[in-house]
Structures are given as structure tokens and as C-alpha cells.
Amino acid sequence: MSKLIGVYIAEKLDGKRYFRASITHKSKHISLGSFELQSAAHKAYLEADAILNGNQYNIKDYSSILKLSFEKWIVLHNYRDNGIYIKNPIYLRSRYFTYYLDFDTELTFDVDDLFYYSTHKIMRRDGYFFVNDYGMQINIRSRYGIRNFSVVGRDYLFIDNNPHNFRYDNIKIINQYLGVQKGMYENVTKYTAKIHINGDYVIGRYKTEDLAAIAYNKAVDTLLANGINKNYTKNYLENLNSEQYLELYNRIRISRKIRDFNNNAPKSLK
Q1: Which helix (H) or strand (E) holds 222?
Q2: Which pTM value belongs to this model?
Q3: How many CB atoms lie within 10 A of CB 41?
Q4: Which of 81, 109, 142 lies at the terminal end of a domain, its last residue?
């Protein structure tokens, strides 16, 4: 152990020495990170001590001159203010919590999601937010009924227009099924089913969202049966049992263009 409080000397596999910082608060031992310099590790300890024991900082006081990472900064503030240690950068609030990706990016969730995000770290890529779940990268929007290819404004809405607010009452699903869009036709609400082949093809317009979703599935089956070689994902309608689904499936009519598409299909689709 170093002579400086809160600092421990360690070695890498190649024998190079570095310094680890940690602090114990209310019987909880907390790692603060690894540093090349002993002075930096000690400064990180002092910053953590000022948060936990001196109550000297607030979340918005963070700056790049500090040695603590921003993630650890949030963890320590939440532990001090709410008495719960969470390893991810989560700050508990009244009836919801904030997940800080960085100083300028706060994602908001209902408390129902606390256990999930306490154990799943959120990552960002190309404007989307992901977690690693069972070895796969899962877009967090899927937890809220938003499909990967859904378009904001067409298929779903953030009611307060804040795309970082993932509280359940802030997300409105407009189109929950693949290939289905809601619209007004002659002042009547209809659901248009479309499918992409070598462009978008209209399958038909239907009175209900479920019928349009089943029509999409029937179009997929028809195209595959006609030798169209594409990897389509079909809709799952959890509100219908197998008999109800089959009855509607057999009754639904789809566009003749879909039924006969094989006749004019490009070779690349066969």
C-alpha cells in the first residue's frame, strides 16, 4: 500500500507499476479507478472523500480537471444522497431515476426499470442506445414496444418531444406491427399493410391494426411460397389464439400484385 491514504500500488503483467484508488464509506469498499501517477490516485480519493464525507459537491460541479471519472462521480453522489450503491451511473429521484451517459446526456426511466439498468450498462452507437443482454446488443427501445426500424413521428412518439425520456407514459406507440401504418382514407381510419421487396408494395388497407398485421404475414408467406428469397420477420399477435389467427388469416385478402409477384421477380430475389 502507498503511504498516501486511499492509494494502493499494483503491477501490470509486464511489471509496470500503477496506482489504484479506493475509499470505504459506511462499510462499503468502493474502487475509484486506476491511475498512472500516485498523485492522481490520491486526488481521486480526496474528491471521493469530499463527496461522501464532506458533502462539498453536487452533480453539476463536475469538470474535466477532476480525477474521478464522470460515471464514478454519479455513483458516489447517488450513494451519498440516496443511501444505495449502484455500480452504473444512476441517480435516484422521486418515482423515477436518471441514467447519465455523460455530463450532457441524461436518460430518464421509471422505477420499474431500475433493476434492469442497475445490472445492464447502456452504450451509445449512431444515436441509438444499447445494452448487452445474453451476449447480444439489444436496442433499449425494444423494451418499450419500439421496433428496430420504427420511425419516430410515424410509428411512435415521445409525448414531451424529449427522445431521452423513456418513462412509459411518455412513449406512445402508433404502429406496433411491422409493415403497418395507420392513416385516414375518406375520413375513415384504415391500416395500410406494406411490404418491401425491391421497393414498397401495398398489400391492402384494413379496418383494424391486427388485420393489417396478419395481412403482412400472409404476404410474407405468399412471397416465400412463390420462391422470393428474402429474410422477412413476421408479426406476432399475442392477443389472438391460434384458431382466431387462422380464421382471420384464411379470410384476409391481399393484393394481386403480391400474389403474382413471382412472375416478374428479379433473379436476385429468387
Answers
A1: helix 209-225
A2: 0.78
A3: 26
A4: 81
